[in-house]
Amino acid sequence: MPSQHYHIHKDFRYNGVSFNTSDLVEIGYSLIKEGDAYEQPIGEFILDWLSPETTIKVHTSGSTGNPKPIAIKKQHMVNSALTTGAFLGLKNKNTALLCLPVNYIAGKMMLVRAMVIGLHLDIIQPQLNVFSATKKSYDFCAMTPPQLEASQTEIDKISKLLVGGGMVSESLKRSCAANKAWIYETYGMTETVTHIALKRINPNPTNVFKCFPKVTITTDERDCLIIQAPHVSDVSVLTNDVVQLVSKSEFQWVGRYDNIINSGGVKLSPEHIEHKLLPLIAVPFFIAGVADPVLGEKLVLIIEGSVPPQKLLEKIKKAAMLDKFEVPKKVYALPQFVRTSNGKLQRSKTLSLISK
Question: Which end of the chain is more exposed for a tag (fewer CB within 10 A), N or C?
Answer without folding.
Answer: N
